[in-house]
Design goal:
Layout lengths: L14 E2 L2 E3 L2 E3 L4 E5 L6 E6 L3 H17 L7 H17 L1 H12 L3 H24 L3 E3 L6 E9 L2 E5 L5 H6 L2 H7 L2 E5 L6 H12 L7 E3 L4 H10 L5 E5 L2 H13 L4 E5 L5 E4 L5 H13 L11 E5 L3 H13 L19 H16 L3 E4 L3 E2 L6 E2 L2 E4 L6 H4 L6 E7 L2 H9 L3 E2 L1 E5 L3 H10 L4 E4 L14 E2 L2 E2 L4 H6 L2 E9 L10
Parallel strand pairs: 1-5, 8-9, 8-11, 9-10, 11-12, 13-14, 13-21, 14-19, 18-19, 21-22
Antiparallel strand pairs: 2-3, 4-5, 6-7, 7-25, 12-24, 15-18, 16-17, 20-23
Helix pairs in contact: 2-4, 2-6, 2-7, 3-4, 4-6, 10-11
Bound molecules: nicotinamide-adenine-dinucleotide.
The site of nicotinamide-adenine-dinucleotide has 32 residues, from helix 8 and helix 9.
InterPro entries: Ald_DH/histidinol_DH (IPR016161), Ald_DH_C (IPR016163), Ald_DH_CS_GLU (IPR029510), Ald_DH_N (IPR016162), Aldehyde_DH_dom (IPR015590)
Family: Belongs to the aldehyde dehydrogenase family.
GO molecular function: oxidoreductase activity, acting on the aldehyde or oxo group of donors, NAD or NADP as acceptor
């Protein structure tokens, strides 16, 4: 492995975390340990919370919501706290990035870039807190005036995955807080550190106790209990479609809490022969390998026009072979470690299945032995047919399946041939083709001649089995509100009962 940059050297000792309820740090009897996926060394110990701990956290969030110290203060005051938090993130950027890398395995340069995005999320949400508004109806006649009030929905449960522990958290928390809601977060068991660090930053920024609570521990225990909790008004879940389905069942069986679901994807990248092939190949290489392919919006299905397919796959394979895979603490690294050993087995299993089902490995095709940790070669399969497992399933790794098409209709049909609808990308120099594909492919996020670009201004979310609802932007705040229709009588009442 490459030598480490001294500014991001490995910490001498593991870091111990409690959990955070009602503005207080607590310890749990039981703890879980996390080894760095790139170095196999112990990095953090976090609490394995009990259901009682969760009940305490929900009760604290409820008290703070009801006493109005957050939910009923002016939007401008909420905005001030969110802006101070953004500043806190700026000051602790290196620290947050380090713990994100140590638990997740992503490259340090990428982690720092993600924190910049998180800062922007807090700033955008601060603006939204001041601009959040309802509506009015001045067209109901002289005697009636109508208003639509937006109110925070209440106590929100937030369950997050391990692939972008801090980024996904920050694409939700500031928007939830901007709406006036309070929340209880349950991060993924293997990547809880940065969610806990945020508690400290929010507290120092002046967030009232009980508005942000964190319980850590086992998903099928604490996550499930949060989804089932009768005093939680809304659950925002980001993770697999399978667990998302159990959250729907838990909501239905408990209090019919509102659900926001951000789930899986099998996202197409469509490349036309008239595109700049070098740019498109760079986009395809980035789209599938960013975050070791453990990315819900990763472009895992390449749909390329047949006339240029061999040339395009050659350019792409050559680029993928040059991606720097290695120690995530090295600032030059582009792909780090696979986050969990279970995920590593899953990815390698799909690579083997692809070979057995007859797809051709054009690049990569297996694990990468760097002496410690778990790494996978950026892998490109050609000759993939729609029924193969690597064509249909979300692999969540750096494995790209290539399909070929002759007509625009065929490209659109291939792109839509999935249960998912999270994201898509199209590369062409034709405005007609770009807009036709953008309008016909069913996906919640779209990129034309680029990929995974954008900021917290625009909403994120999926079509089909990729989820319900939207996060970020104004819609991301509105998601955590409910509307109340108000009717005001003006002047004398026309009596129902005759006098
Ligand atoms: P996962 O579904 O296994 O776990 C996600 C979270 O749910 C974790 O915090 C986990 O502890 C918790 N959990 C586990 N069992 C639970 C249960 N029974 N009830 C409630 N919570 C439970 O997902 P993962 O492996 O952490 O993440 C990978 C998946 O997340 C992929 O499918 C990916 O596409 C998806 N994802 C989607 C988005 C998006 O925005 N659409 C973003 C990131 C990840």
């Amino acid at each position: 492995m490459a030598e480490l940059d001294q500014s991001t050297a490995f910490p001498e000792t593991p870091r111990d975390f409690g959990f955070y309820v009602d503005g207080q740090w607590r310890q749990a009897g039981d703890q879980q340990e996390r080894l760095s996926p790139a170095h196999d060394r112990l990095v953090t110990r976090t609490a394995r919370c009990s259901k009682q701990d969760l009940d305490d956290a929900v009760a604290a969030a409820r008290r703070t919501f009801e006493n109005g110290r957050w939910s009923r203060i002016p939007g401008a005051e909420r905005a001030a706290v969110l802006l101070r938090t953004a500043q806190g993130l700026r000051e602790r950027r290196d620290e947050i990035a380090l713990w994100e890398v140590l638990e997740n395995g992503k490259p340090i340069s990428q982690a720092k870039g993600e924190i910049d995005h998180c800062i922007a999320c807090f700033e955008v949400a601060a603006g939204a807190a001041r601009l959040l508004r309802g509506d009015s109806f001045n067209n109901m006649g002289d005697s009636l005036f109508g208003m639509v009030l937006r109110e925070p929905i209440g106590v929100v449960g937030l369950i997050t995955p391990w692939n972008f522990p801090f980024l996904i958290l920050c694409e939700r928390v500031p928007f939830i807080l901007a709406s006036g809601c309070t929340l209880v977060v349950k991060p993924a068991e293997v990547t809880s550190a940065t969610t806990l660090i945020l508690a400290d930053i929010l507290e120092k920024a002046g967030l009232p106790a009980g508005a942000y609570n964190v319980v850590t521990g086992v998903g099928r225990v604490i996550g499930q209990a949060l989804a089932e909790h009768p005093d939680v008004d809304m659950l925002s879940f980001t993770g697999s479609t399978a667990v998302g389905r159990t959250c729907v069942q838990a909501s239905a069986a408990s209090n019919l809490k509102k659900l926001g679901l951000e789930l899986g994807g099998k996202n197409p990248i469509i490349v036309f022969a008239d595109s700049n092939l070098d740019d498109a190949a760079d986009g395809a290489a980035f789209g599938i390998n960013f975050n070791t392919g453990q990315c819900c919006v990763s472009s895992s299905r390449l749909i390329v026009e047949r006339s240029v397919a061999p040339e395009f796959e050659r350019i792409l394979a050559e680029k993928m072979a040059r991606i720097r895979v290695g120690d995530p603490l090295d600032p030059r690294t582009q792909i780090g470690a696979v986050t969990t050993s279970a995920q590593n087995e899953t990815i390698l299993g799909y690579i083997e299945k692809g070979k057995q089902e007859g797809a051709k490995v054009v690049q990569g095709g297996g694990a990468l032995d760097l002496g410690r940790g778990r790494f996978i070669q950026p892998t490109l399969f050609s000759g993939v047919t729609p029924s193969m497992a690597i064509a249909r399933d979300e692999i969540f790794g750096p494995v790209l399946s290539s399909f070929h098409f002759d007509t625009t209709e065929e490209a659109i049909a291939l792109a839509n041939d999935t249960i998912y609808g999270l994201a898509a990308s199209v590369w062409t120099s034709s405005l007609n083709k770009a807009l036709t594909v953008t309008r016909r492919v069913r996906a919640g996020r779209f990129w034309v001649n680029t990929i995974m670009a954008g900021g917290p201004e625009t909403p994120a979310g999926g079509f089909k089995q990729s989820g319900w609802g939207r996060e970020a932007g104004i819609m991301g705040v509105e998601e955590y509100t409910q509307v109340k229709a108000v009717h005001v009588e003006i002047g004398a009442r026309a009596h129902w009962i005759e006098s």
